[in-house]
UniProtKB/TrEMBL annotation:
InterPro entries: Ppnp (IPR009664), RmlC-like_jellyroll (IPR014710), RmlC_Cupin_sf (IPR011051)
EC number: 2.4.2.1, 2.4.2.2
Name listed for the protein in its UniProt record: Pyrimidine/purine nucleoside phosphorylase
Entry similarity comment: Belongs to the nucleoside phosphorylase PpnP family.
Organism: Ectobacillus funiculus
Transmembrane segments: none
SUPFAM superfamilies linked: RmlC-like cupins (SSF51182)
Reaction equations catalysed: xanthosine + phosphate = alpha-D-ribose 1-phosphate + xanthine; guanosine + phosphate = alpha-D-ribose 1-phosphate + guanine; a purine D-ribonucleoside + phosphate = a purine nucleobase + alpha-D-ribose 1-phosphate; uridine + phosphate = alpha-D-ribose 1-phosphate + uracil
Lineage top rank: taxon: Bacteria
HAMAP family: Nucleos_phosphorylase_PpnP
Function noted in UniProt: Catalyzes the phosphorolysis of diverse nucleosides, yielding D-ribose 1-phosphate and the respective free bases. Can use uridine, adenosine, guanosine, cytidine, thymidine, inosine and xanthosine as substrates. Also catalyzes the reverse reactions.
Pfam families: Ppnp (PF06865)
Keyword field contains Glycosyltransferase: yes
Length: 104
């Protein structure tokens, strides 16, 4: 999916790591949420409260899930993070992403 229709977008940005990671929340008619954002080069640690799908549509980075080895994404890729876990990112070039929150 390259675009979303019939959604509500929050104008206020979610800002993390002194502005190096930003996103906007997108709410769908059924109440599900996604965030669309940009990550500048750097190293980051995030925590989840629900399962997340991290989809990258631009950039070069590596990610590390708990108990796994580092994996690389170049330009596009998807990975899933279980609920209530942390994951690490090493972002090498500006990364364009969409995070989907999955309630099970």
């Amino acid at each position: 999916m390259t675009q979303f229709e019939n959604v509500t977008i929050s104008k206020k940005a979610n800002v993390y790591f002194e502005g190096k990671v930003t996103s906007r929340t997108v709410v769908f008619p059924d109440g599900t949420k996604k965030t669309l954002g940009i990550m500048l080069p750097g190293e980051y640690e995030f925590s989840t409260s629900v399962k997340e799908e991290m989809e990258f549509v631009g950039g070069t980075l590596e990610y590390k899930l708990q108990g796994q080895d580092w994996q690389k994404i170049e330009e596009s890729g998807i990975f899933y993070v279980p609920a209530n876990e942390t994951f690490l990112l090493k972002v090498y070039t500006v990364a364009d992403y969409c995070c989907s929150y999955i309630s099970e």
